[in-house]
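Quick entry between incubations.
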Amino acid sequence: MDRYIISSVRVGEIGKPFMAQPSDDIEWLLAGGFIQRSDTHPSKSAKLSEKPDATNNKKD
Amino acid sequence: MATATYLSNPVVSIGAVDLSDQCTSATLSQKITALQANAFGSTAISYTAGLQDNSLSLDLYWSTAATETYATLKALVGTNIATITIKGSSAATSATNPLGTLSNSFLEELPVAYTLGELTTVSVTFMGGTFAWTEA
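Done. Structure below.
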């Protein structure tokens, strides 16, 4: 689910999360610069191509 | 006899966007068309309720700064607006400060008035849609 941050005092306190109501036109609010998409989604951990213990640098 | 003075300082929001500080006048008309319901034998005109024919007219300063009047209204011409709300003051909604909500009204035009030596204004009318008062 997308999260939005308030970027204009016309819709609330700038920087606070925007709690969208069912009647809110999100695309219109985004286009007008009133809110913006949050870029603070928790990112997934990077996937390793190999398991850490499957490396070839064996010390011997 | 009036016993109180009412200072009008309403709050107007189009969708989630509060345009109160650009608004100088708001006229809300909650209307239901009257249909004549007479028949042979009637001795006086009588009416019954027809369709709602609500409207909300706003006079706004035409600010073209970011997230102001222009940014709010430019994309709404020719569309139905999900909700527009208005109430008498910024106090909490209550029986003495009811919130009016106009849903799915239509904005036909955006008539901007540029006048020499005056602040630019726009007078918009949101037509149609359903209207309801909320007291809580």
